[in-house]
Design brief:
Blueprint (H helix, E strand, L loop, with lengths): L2 E3 L5 E3 H32 L4 H20 L7 H30 L7 H15 L3 H12 L4 H8 L3 H26 L1
Antiparallel strand pairs: 1-2
Length: about 180
């Protein structure tokens, strides 16, 4: 008799393994017939396009089949498939974000257009007209990219006070720039 090694190390007769494979096949086929379309819909709602959604769902079914063939106990295939499809969709989002971040790091920084440069100068000129403390908070936070804790340490105030100064400074800037835009038109 031919034997194979099971998941937990025990030996299984070949005919038992074939029975386990047939049982797994029936479970997967039934789950596919009942849930594939709904799982694709879930994946698409999670932000995947149709092809990516079908790929994720197919991968979930392959994982279910492999797990069942290896002896994994799956009480509710539908819930298991939904969870696996969700994780696969999130993995695809993480991969896309990593690729996008890598591209941004590898590409040269875009040169600002004349309009963008003028807007930037307008904003920083308006910052120069703020009170000294608001101006300092905004410069430290947004020009030097310091955390509010570091801004507070630099200014000798609490982090809450640094946030308040920055918030009030931004509100003043918004009001000034909206008023300026209205008078330019």
């Amino acid at each position: 008799m031919v034997v194979i090694l099971g998941k937990t190390g025990e030996t299984l007769p070949l005919d038992l393994r074939a029975a386990a494979d047939a049982s797994a096949r029936r479970v997967v086929e039934r789950a596919h017939a009942d849930n594939a379309t709904a799982l694709v819909g879930l994946a698409m709602r999670l932000g995947l396009d149709e092809d990516e959604a079908w790929d994720a769902v197919q991968e979930a079914f392959i994982r279910l089949w492999r797990g069942l063939c290896e002896g994994d106990q799956v009480r509710d295939p539908r819930a298991w498939l939904a969870s696996t499809t969700y994780r696969l969709a999130m993995d695809r989002h993480r991969l896309a974000r990593r690729i996008r971040d890598l591209r941004l790091r590898l590409l040269p920084p875009p040169t600002p257009s004349l309009g963008e440069e003028n807007d930037r100068l307008t904003v920083w000129t308006a910052v120069d007209r703020l009170s000294a403390r608001q101006r300092a908070a905004l410069l430290l936070r947004y020009r030097l990219d310091l955390s509010f804790e570091d801004v507070a340490a630099a200014m000798g105030i609490t982090p809450g006070a640094a946030r308040t100064l920055a918030s009030r400074g931004l509100a003043t800037l918004r009001a000034q720039l909206v008023t300026r835009e209205g008078s330019d038109q």
